[in-house]
Write a structure and sequence with these properties.
The complex is a heterodimer of chains A (352) and B (128). Chain A has 352 residues and is an alpha+beta fold. Chain A has 8 helices and 20 strands. In chain A, the strands form 4 sheets. Chain A has a 6-stranded mixed β-sheet, with helices on both faces. In chain A, strands 15-18-17-16-19-20 form a 6-stranded antiparallel beta barrel. A 5-stranded antiparallel β-sheet of chain A has the order 6-7-8-5-9. In chain A, 49% of the residues are buried. Classes of the chains: A alpha+beta (352), B alpha+beta (128).
Chain lengths: 352, 128
Amino acid sequence: MKHTPLFELHQRLGARMVPFAGFAMPLHYGSIQAEHRAVREGVGVFDVSHMGEFWVSGPEAQDFLESVTTNRVARLRPGRAHYTMLPNAEGGVVDDAYLYHVEPGRYLLVVNAANVEKDFAHLGGRAEGWDVVLEDRSDATALLAVQGPRAAELLASLTDADLAAPKKNAVFRARVLGREALLARTGYTGEDGFEVFLAPEDAPAVFEALVEAGATPAGLGARDTLRLEMGYPLYGHELTDETNPRCTPYAWVVKEKEPPFLGQERMGASPCDERLVGLLLESGIPREGYPVYAGEEAVGRVTSGGLSPVLKRGIALAWVQAPYAEEGTELAVEIRGRRHPARVHPLPFIRR
Amino acid sequence: MNVPEELKYRDTHEWVRVEDGVAVVGITDYAQGELGDVVYVELPEVGRKVEAGEAVAVIESVKTASDIYAPVSGEIVEVNELLAEHPEKVNEDPYGEGWLFKIRMARPEELEALLDAEGYRKLLEAEG
């Protein structure tokens, strides 16, 4: 089991540690719901050092990334970041990722912890013949996510950078607590906030300073309920090697390109017989794998589900047959043998 | 870890308190801590006949749904209605207001198969 640089600190803070993607990670520090509320109403800090960080540089970095990601890299100016996907040759998804154009021609690709090896092998294979340098810096990078309406105010007390100016998806270098850091106005919670890339040895002091300044330590449990309320996908649940992202609410990151990205034609040709939708239930708590019904007919299955701490209702992401994917369609989720009415709901489930 | 001396325990982390031939059942302090925030409790119908070891209730935490087993056989004679509005009582007061259901025992001798406090503490140590 791998440890992030914050392992000892998590234990000292009373975290319940669980295995996730080969790492011992904090699930919560006492209450997932309290941490969820802290991020929606105040500010929380997450250790997400388990995520993978690849650097891509070299003269052909942009064109290479254009060929191995679905979003349009040519439009990504230095100092900006965007959500994207790594396609495979079959029209499916190797991973979803965030791409940061840190300096002209130098990119940072942040990928899911569970996929670091798969992604790096995939990209390494695709990089043959390109004049690019690919570097896996996952083990040499700590990552904190400071999220919530008070995130900027709190982080401002620890950095020399002006945090009022950078817009959502900005990325820039700054010093935090005197340490060199890369800051990005990004996150996975739907709230304003920053992600802070640090050298591993600097991470515990910064995390602790954020907590002392008033940030609530938050674990993977809250990270999951927060992303679910926003309808964000989690690879391995909503997205897999076989998923066609065009059939999901995240189709906006799939751009038709010339020359095409890997698998573009197959991704474009495949009909969306099933679509990924949000479901809001009247009662009951849907969980991954639960069947979805239209009348007596099984028409889909839940990929992620839970109780929305904000709505106090069961919410889910689910694949359903295309005719049942329209907003407002009345469906049902079977929970322990009982059908609970559910309605196809636009994403996000909550308005920010 | 709070493991009251006077209770009996099932190895699946339910506790039993006997009151006039009726077994009051809940989950232990350890169990509620493992589950985390309880957000919904699905209780059995009053009048249902249950067998020891049968899954009779479900506790949903933020993360997962967990089965709760009947420690003894008998008839469900009462369920804790408070939990419909306040499932968090299972976390806050697992041995008190957070009780789950009551079973009128068909075979009180089944109690002997349950763990006492010391046995349950050893089980927790073994689970680490």
